[in-house]
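Researcher: Go.
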Amino acid sequence: MASDRSVPGRWAESERAGIAENKNAYGTDLFIEADSGRVISPKQMGRIMAFHEQVAHLHELHSGIIPSSFRRYLKATKAASIEQQIRMHAEVYRRYRREWLLLIADARRRNFPWITPARSRAALDGAIA
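Model: Structure:
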């Protein structure tokens, strides 16, 4: 399947990775270049900000600390029950946080509409604004 080169944004990254994507593959393409005529709805922004907040709340994982709230969450959802499982989940979430921090930093550099300038302590960590 040939990629649609008329769609800016994500096609270039996915094409470099060898992945052909339909131009309508995303409900909201966060990585499309800024377009003054394109508006992200408040509902969509709420979901995006939830990711930002989750990234901010996972800052302790970076230092190797597994917060008690994270442990409770894993146990309550039955995702993990023993320490080894909790550590494995913590590592996945630590990597998830690192990847989101990179995406957020890139979005700030490119002035995407779904990101705002850093202001709070969490924002200094790269997560929310």
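Model: The radius of gyration is 17 Å.
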